[in-house]
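Support reply, case 0932

Customer input (verbatim):
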Amino acid sequence: MPDKILRLNPGERLELKKQHPCGGKEFTVLRVGSDVRIRCDTCGRDMVLERLKLEKAVRRKLEETQQEKESES
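Our regenerated output:
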């Protein structure tokens, strides 16, 4: 298990370690729970992954959501 839980919010963009079959590596989070629904930014295909599997696959977050920016202020 990961040492730290990755905080995910709908609307966040992620870069994953492996490419989607279409060649894209950037995804947008659509729904968060024990399973996370993400959409490929290149082809628009969406998929549901287990949270632990997704956390291992994430390379980095691409940008902060508007909610995180407001909570820091």
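We compared this against your earlier run and they match. Two observations from our side: The two ends are 32 Å apart (CA to CA). Helices lie at 51-57, 66-72. Please reopen the case if you see a mismatch on your end.
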